[in-house]
TrEMBL record:
Signal peptide: none annotated. It comes from the Bacteria. SUPFAM superfamilies: Winged helix' DNA-binding domain (SSF46785). It holds the Pfam family HTH_5. This is ArsR family transcriptional regulator. Residues 257-332 form the HTH arsR-type domain. GO terms for molecular function: DNA binding; DNA-binding transcription factor activity. The lineage of its organism: Bacteria, Bacillati, Actinomycetota, Actinomycetes, Streptosporangiales. Residues 331-357 are annotated as: Disordered.
Length: 357
């Protein structure tokens, strides 16, 4: 069992954040077939051709794939926890490139030693090269530009939506409620001087309070994972809510349905996306629409009684009404593939059973 002890100072410093570099690395696991995820299969099918080209043309990408094929330790330096909520891929790549060679060599040696199965000689040569840090950073950058960056607005919108959901729970009910559905393998226990976050993992480790707090990082492509080794900030990476909407955006473009015929395709797309409260900006990013177009359709849906809006601080949140839920549910019963909200893959199979350290 893994246990993070937290005191009030620790909790005050804890944050939710988004990690572009983690999404980049974990997408390789999905595309290589190491971590199957039914919800992400349409996205993987679209991207696999570009992934195969990268593996042939960019040797460091093959090394990154090999490093990801383990349920044990993975090198921390190629996926550093974000230092803030708005860290970009360029920011994180700079952190990777600044990794001391000795640290990189130790982390890579640990991964290869603990990994089961052979390592190709070409990959081993890459990992033992004196410029391995620069090579792996270049590989990550290539994967980002070819596979992740084109879909980043939609990916970021899903991750941001998860953060907004948990921030609302945190403000209204506290940490226990904000973490309650993080994963079936993670739980919160209140103590007199704070609390502890426990994770059901196949090793025993206890992390004392740290004035830097914890980072909670949602992920679309990755499983439940943890960062506990210094010098990195302690972090819990967890499957984001609504991950299936990434693929639904593309699937929906190819298939007509009764709901689209009733309220137009764009309004149907927006209505389905509001299974939980969202902002206009999130919908705009997720579906590639302009703010004006999104606002126009939201206004019509609201006047029709299908959605309502509420203010939360500086945000205006939109969500479906009971009528809107019924309309989506009726259409989904006729075509289950039309609704991405039933995303049950986040805590199943390899993702939940084998958390990564």
């Amino acid at each position: 069992m893994l246990e993070f002890d937290v005191d009030p100072q620790d909790l005050a410093a804890s944050r939710f954040a988004i990690s572009p570099i983690n999404e980049t690395g974990r997408a390789l696991d999905v595309l290589s077939g190491y971590r199957g995820d039914v919800a992400l299969r349409p996205w993987a099918d679209r991207a696999r051709g570009r992934f195969n080209d990268l593996c042939r043309q960019v040797p460091p990408v093959r090394a990154l794939v090999t490093l990801g094929h383990t349920d044990g330790y993975q090198p921390d330096f190629i996926s550093p926890p974000p230092t803030g909520p708005r860290e970009t891929m360029a920011d994180q790549l700079e952190i990777v490139r600044a990794t001391p060679f000795d640290q990189a060599r130790q982390e890579l040696h640990r991964t290869i030693t603990e990994r089961s199965g052979p390592v190709a000689e070409e990959v081993r040569a890459t990992l033992q090269a004196p410029d391995v840090v620069a090579w792996l950073a270049a590989g990550l950058e290539a994967v980002w530009h070819e596979l992740i960056e084109p879909d980043w607005p939609a990916i970021h919108a899903i991750l941001e939506q998860d953060l907004l959901h948990r921030a609302g729970l945190l403000l209204a009910y506290g940490w226990a409620e904000a973490l309650t559905d993080l994963s079936a393998h993670v739980s919160w226990r209140s103590h007199e001087n704070g609390g502890s976050i426990t994770a059901d993992v196949p090793w025993d480790e206890r992390c004392p309070p740290d004035s830097d707090g914890l980072l909670f990082v949602p992920t679309i492509f990755g499983p439940l994972a943890f960062c506990t080794d210094p010098p990195w900030r302690r972090a819990i990476l967890y499957p984001a809510r609504g991950r299936a909407t990434l693929t639904h955006r593309h699937v929906q473009e190819d298939h007509g349905d009764a709901l689209s015929e009733l309220v137009t395709r764009t309004r149907a797309l927006l209505l389905r996306a509001m299974r939980q409260p969202v902002t206009t900006t999130q919908l705009t990013r997720q579906h590639g629409l302009s703010l004006g177009t999104t606002g126009h359709h939201l206004s019509i849906l609201r006047r029709s009684g299908l959605i309502i809006s509420t203010r939360s601080g500086k945000f205006v949140l939109y969500r479906r009404t009971a009528l809107g839920d019924a309309l989506v549910a009726a259409n989904t019963s006729a075509d289950p593939s039309a609704d991405p909200s039933a995303d049950t893959s986040a805590d199943q199979g390899r993702t939940g059973a084998d958390p990564i350290r």
